Prior knowledge:
Distance between the termini: 56 Å
Strand order of the largest sheet: 1-2-3-5-4-6-7-12-13
Shape: globular
Structural class: alpha/beta
Strand content: 15-25%
Radius of gyration: 23 Å
Number of strands: 13
Largest sheet: 9 strands, mixed
Helix content: 25-40%
Number of helices: 18
Mean pLDDT: 90
Amino acid sequence: MPSRLFTMLWLFVCVFVPGFSALAQEDELPFILWSACPFEIPEGEAEAETLDCGFLVTYEDHFSDEDATQVELAFAILYSINEPMPDAVIYLEGGPGGSALSSVDSWVESSVRVNNDLILLDQRGTGFSFPSLNCIELETYEGDDPLEAEQACFDRFVDEGINVNAYKSAQSATDIAELMALLQEEIDYSEFNLLGISYGTRLALTMLRDYPEGIRSVIIDSVYPPNVNAYEHQAANIYRGLQMLFDGCTADPDCEDAYPDLEAVFYDIYVSLNETPAAYESEDPDTGVVTKQQLTGDSFLDLIVQSLYSTTAIPELPLVIYEVSEGNYGIVDLIDTGEFSDGFNRGPAFLQDERDDLGDISDSEGMFNAVECQEELPFNNFDEAVETSAIVPDPIRDYLVSEIENQFLTCEIYGLEPADVIETEPVYSDIPTLVLAGNYDPITPPSDAQMAAETLSSSYYFEFPGHGHGITDAGDCANSIIAAFLADPTVEPDRSCVADIKGITFVIR
């Protein structure tokens, strides 16, 4: 059993080796194998003192009596900074396909960890868990048809004997329930609080539905509820986020004066760069290597939309749009890496972990496809997505619709069985739930969070002005609300600090 005084761990663990099924077969499933951490230990942390790592060894298919194939799911426990409360927090990463352990650095000083042990889990198919559903084929593909890489990746999964149908929310929820039960036995946690961001909110809601026992409270941040038809509204949601940016600048006299007609300038850039892509040189900030890059209108749109996820990046976007309009194309790399000079800094970048055979494991594309192609796409209609996108302006509509179409085509490649219809239905629960949303969020808008809150009878809904995708640790206000909720989830947190948020202060050149 690990603890802060756990000193015997190193007598029997080995270094991380993906896939240790021969060893795992010695015990009855599920069980925990405590292990050395598979990632670089963050500065100031020490294994067996401030954190411990292990693997949940369990079945690939919990719902089959015939398949005894095993999976090994990596997790880490970051012990609380203060004397811990008896209830730990389990973080559920988004994506689907994101790796919680790949961003361990960003959680070391999290406010969530102050009074509670924080458990980071790489869900099945992701990160350091085995098998990995990461698609290195997509990362290395240089052809003109990405669907070729999607096919090659899926074919490899089949050749490796991976049952891709077993990689979905209901299976992951069972994994988490097993981990909770085992940790209660080995560390004596009384209950657990779930913290989900983005897709992690859908997994948290699945837990509320399927395994509510032992859950003290839930925090769902930037909510992706099961009863939303995400792809039918994807283009409209992205357009809404862009319009929030344009309108926000127009309503700010300083921004409007510095960047007049921002919306028109953006669409002019989009059309111009698609007609004549811009070539520029980019210097890698870590290695100093200079490479030639190309910027198209589509890639510029992607960059701006992705930046709308980040609350700290949003204030910089009018500046970026204008700089690009004047030929300073290299500024897009500063946005992408968070290395603005003169104070234009998005904050620390997430740790990007790599293994030579699997590529960048911080984001598992195959796990994304496995979940979306079972739980979301089968219940969405492409014609409806096209109709809903009619509100999107002509210059970007075709591209946004083509991205949706590509996901439908990818799901045809995967050919997975649609999930049970329950995966499209609202989740009802009276367990205390804190619901968080950012009003600039381009992918999980506040309306999705409100939809989820409607059937959570003990929920508290908070919408943050000027915030993007992800509210947890977004500032003192969010931190205070989360801390108050974790201290006593039966009492609504004081929301007065939200009213004091004045919105965005745009960066003016």
